[in-house]
Amino acid sequence: MHVHFLDPYRPRPSLVHSLDARVKFILTVAYILTCALTPLGAWPVFILLFSLVLAVEILSELGVRYVLKRSILAAPFVLAALPLIFTVPGSTLVRLPLGSAALNVTVEGVERLVSIAVKSWLSLQAAIIMSASMPFPDLLLAMRAVGMPRLLVAIIGLMWRYLFVLVDEALRLMRARAARSGFSDQEGLKSGGSLAWRARVTGGMAGSLFLRGFERSDRIYTAMLSRGYDGEVRSMPLPAITPSAWLTLLLGLLLLGLLLFLAFLL
Amino acid sequence: MHHSIEVEDLWFAYPDGHPALRGVSLKIEPCEKVALVGPNGAGKSTLILHLNGILTGKARQIKAGGLDVNRQNLGKVRARVGMVFQSPEDQLFSPTVFDDVAFGPLYQGLQPEEVRKRVADALAAVHMADYAGRVSHHLSMGEKKRIAIATVLAMQPEVLVLDEPTAGLDPRARRSLIRLLGDLDITMLVSTHDLHMVKELFPRMIVMDEGCVVADGPTRTLLEDEALLEAHGLEKP
Lengths: 266, 237
Prior knowledge:
The structure holds two protein chains of two kinds. By secondary structure, chain A is mainly alpha-helical. Chain A has a domain of about 150 residues. In chain A, about 65% of the residues lie in helices and about 5% in strands. Chain A has a two-stranded antiparallel sheet. Chain A is flat, with a radius of gyration of 25 Å. By secondary structure, chain B is an alpha/beta fold. In chain B, the strands form two sheets. Chain B has a six-stranded mixed beta sheet with strand order 6-7-8-3-9-10, sandwiched between helices. In chain B, strand 4 and strand 5 form a beta hairpin. The radius of gyration of chain B is 18 Å and the shape is globular. The mean pLDDT of chain B is about 90. At the A-B interface, helix 9 and helix 10 of A face helix 2, helix 3 and helix 4 of B.
């Protein structure tokens, strides 16, 4: 049994899918940058940015629900920004008495929190569309095309390749443990062991997984060396970008630039 | 007296839709030693994983050790069906050999002295009594296989199910493993490609291909049927 469900790529016959991977990558990064640079509380621009990402979602035929469901992943990270509603100085919205002291929820704090939440939510949606609309090797290719260090791209590529191997290995370990987790026929025995004992077993499993990963990396490196690897990552030359892809790229960047300009104008 | 293993009309498809088992039926009597052979992808491992409820396909009936394999009986079934996986790396996940062999008995909630006795007996049964304090990680492949069998014997199962026990062993380790399997007095179902071992050890043989049982009978007769062996990618030993 192998793990397939981790791969976010979903093939669809859509315009977004057929767009050149490099253009998609650049536009996604540009979109995320635009979200990050838009000033706090520029609500009209956030709405425009949202409608933009929504339009791409619909064009991509991935299903708006699919993207929105996955984008909920951003929610826990927003919690990290929660203290902002107390720490940002400004006019008090609500006063929470805490013994002798009190916590003030400020309007500015809430505005900043909501802005950060919206920004991360929008950025994540763009990233989801990008990763779902092209196979991972294309993404690596795009990273290389925009000049990311080759070594870094190679590391990300190897990580992706062996992530599945590692998860498979972990699943097999857990299956072997399940096969021996039996109940005795003797009456009155409490099966399952104590929590501390189970934790120790799990710790042992994690340890052996680490050791195996470590040894595997050694074997992979030896295999690379024996095929002539010398520390330099080489790859095939990239195909040219078509004129229509160039046009999409330019229009996309122009639109995002316009939105950013609008955001600062407001 | 119940059958050790009873499977009737078992169907299973992997989540990607690929059918792995298509109406498998078989019965194994107590103290029988049966070999399960067939090409890669025939469904042998998939079938084996159904015998202790790790996979759950559709079947008219699956019984192991006299118990229905279902959610309520899962714990008891897993204690009665001892499963030895192909890769001992997966089976041995504890820091020391002792911890690994003790896992099953400890999980069952047995008393410490009983656990110690079970571990000692199991290691003695695989002729590895001196290895209790060793680190599993540093053992040879043949030693790991023996320890993997001991981890299951310590649960005192009714049936021993092994997946490819001789794969990856050198001739000496293979020979000593075959001798060990011959000495163990327990019901056994062994999935394997090693037809020499089958000929030597198992009076009965089940041939699977493309998710079906295509032959089930005395090993001696089936191994003479060259047309059958050829049709299912096997070689006469």
